[in-house]
Amino acid sequence: MAQRSRSTRAEIIHWGEKLFERRLVSGWGGNLSCRFGRDRFLVTASGAALGFLKAADVVEIDARGQAVRPDRQPSSETPLHLAVYAATGARAVVHVHPPEIVAGCRDIEEFVPLSFEEEYTLGRVPVIAHEGPTVADPEPVAEALRHHPVVILRGHGTVSRGRDLMEAFLVTDLLVEAVRCRRMMADDA
């Protein structure tokens, strides 16, 4: 299990860098997690910058969200991640704050992609009402993620789930591209 934990930490570090490189997250925003084992999870630490993660920035937690070792605190969004795991078969969760989505999806109830491929993969993406810097009520997000690979938190960002971090990353990236396409169409009108 220790070797698996190390490789999963490395994977979280890798995808944190990719999210930062794609500008899907900036500063200290966003958080990642993976399930490993039946009731163990790795989640980014509170205040960790995803683009510059180190192994110490990834915290092992139990199913209640408690750090296995108390040297680092898990993300304040840990209850959100655990709710998604409890509601879905996800093995990974990505929560980021893409500027195009934060700015472009404030006044809609759902996002409908323009291209057939995007709509086939993403479906109609729900926009969930949200206020504050942390998701206070994760249940609506978890419930929506039962039926959708990604959701938008109004004025906050996105939450995606996947079989692994690559899938959750790709779904998030595809949604950002779909929002860009919609904005380009609006700019041409």
The SSE order reads: HEEEHEHEHEHEEH
**Termini separation:** 55 Å
Low-confidence stretches: none
Largest sheet: number of strands, sense, barrel closure: 8 strands, mixed
Structural class: alpha+beta
Q: At the fourth CATH level, what is the homologous superfamily? A: Class II aldolase/adducin N-terminal domain
Portion in helices:
40-55%
CATH topology: L-fuculose-1-phosphate Aldolase
Quickly name the level 1 CATH class: Alpha Beta
Question: If you average the pLDDT, what whole number results?
Answer: 92
β-strand percent reads 15-25%
The CATH architecture comes to 3-Layer(aba) Sandwich
Give Rg in angstroms. Answer: 16 Å
Count, helices:
6
Describe this structure in words.
The protein has 189 residues and is α+β, with helices and mostly antiparallel strands. The protein has a single domain (2-188), classed as L-fuculose-1-phosphate Aldolase (3-Layer(aba) Sandwich). The protein is built from six helices and eight strands. The chain has an eight-stranded mixed β-sheet with strand order 3-2-1-4-8-7-6-5, sandwiched between helices. A hairpin with a 4-residue loop joins strand 1 (31-35) and strand 2. The longest helix is centred in the C-terminal third of the chain and has 24 residues, at 165-188. The protein starts with a helix and ends with a helix. The mean pLDDT is 92.
